[in-house]
Write a structure and sequence with these properties.
Elements: E1 8-15, E2 18-19, E3 25-29, E4 32-36, E5 44-51, E6 55-65, H1 91-110, E7 132-138, H2 145-148, E8 158-162, E9 170-172, H3 181-196, E10 211-218, E11 224-230, H4 235-247, E12 251-258, E13 272-276, E14 280-284, E15 287-291, H5 301-315, E16 322-326, H6 332-337, E17 343-348, H7 351-363, E18 369-373, H8 376-379, H9 382-388, E19 393-396, H10 405-414, E20 418-423, H11 426-436, E21 440-448, E22 458-465
Parallel strand pairs: 4-6, 11-12, 16-17, 16-19, 17-18, 19-20
Antiparallel strand pairs: 1-5, 2-3, 3-4, 5-6, 7-8, 7-10, 8-9, 10-11, 12-13, 14-15, 20-22, 21-22
Amino acid sequence: MRKKKKEVITIEKLHILDAGSEGVCIGKYEERVVFVPYVVPGDVVDVQCKRKKNYYMGKSIALHTASPDRITPKCEHFGLCGGCKWQNMQYETQLFYKRKQVIDNFQRIGKFPFPEVNPILASDAVFAYRNKVEYTFSNKRWLEKEEMDKLEELNTNGLGFHLPGMFDKILDIHHCYLHEEKGNEIRNAVKQYAIDNQLEFWNPRMQTGLCRNLIIRTSVSNEWMVIVVFTALTEQARLLLDFLKNTFPYITSLLYVENAKLNDSITDLPTYTYAGTDFMIEKMNHLQFKVSPLAFYQTNANQAVKLYEVAARFANATPDDIVYDLYTGTGTIALFVASTAKKVVGIEYVESAIENAIENAKLNNITHADFYAGDMVKVLTDDFVEKNGKPTVLIVDPPRSGMHPKVVEQIVKIAPQRIVYVSCNPATQARDIALMADYYNVTEVQPVDMFPHTHHVENVVGLERK
């Protein structure tokens, strides 16, 4: 039986009232919420939409009245890419809605008492702030309407970002304003070289092609790392790597990965060094961090300093304090607070990240830091606490999904005096804090903007045992 197509309706002169947590904006029609991307609160627009069970999902087809907070987006790819959904919104307005997102989640999901949320810490740079960008090769790039008529004359190879919700469609990127100019130069040169020399771009449906992904990373000390993902290291692949080595002498780490799997994930695959080193050095205040090719490091490195300074202030570690840093990654926060603590202990699921953390401790001559790899639920046990000492301060920086309920239970059982909860998702953060609300008071809330022009917000919460 054929599925009935949902009716498409047009809502005229819809007033956009708010900005939602996923970067879409919100209007109201027939007592139902209407979600509309790429508009700005204060706009009046015509919207073409489909009715879902309890809401409408639409797109703007005409602008009647422009919001006073609306600006012209800088990027030619705005509206398709999906990476900068708020680039048409004044930066000050973006900050307002990010802070509001924290407040809304704490009130709606958390329902615990909390003090007035601090003004959000703005990013000094609103463009060219990303130190890592990942691109995908495709032999069937997204085509604009005017290109469809010239299909036979076109080269349909592209190197760019996945279009939202489309695994097999790549938006060919000419210029990304979130990355430094050298990154754009590298990407465009790689794409042109591959086209000129007839290297086969990846086809995700047929699972064929030589070139799959391009990852570009840079550091505050101006080191550049480039990782090219091929299905195999053929002679053509070697020639592309030679081209990169000879054309861009500022690349300090040139690496490659061979991925013949059905998916794009490379975390389980070895990374091979073609030229230069197999790591970068990141600097943060008085600390240095060795960053391996696939290790996580805050994407906005300069703003990360502000984030960690807030976390350190909330932790308020003294020479009498044992500090646990859960989900420590490469040990950045743990080592950031180590100078004022008696001892720091970091736990992280990814083994290679813990190897980096141990190296980073040595690199900075920090001898009172211990790091452990493993599943948080299995590692953070009573025996572990007995062996490493009971923490008086506990810092958590979990993934977007938040903490496992058993981890929250164990934290409450360990009963540190202070908890610092760093999160990139205020919704799951609110959920987790609610589980601790009988035992801890929220003392301070500090949002930090790490990703201008997106809806994402980092949030740091200080908690004190009752």
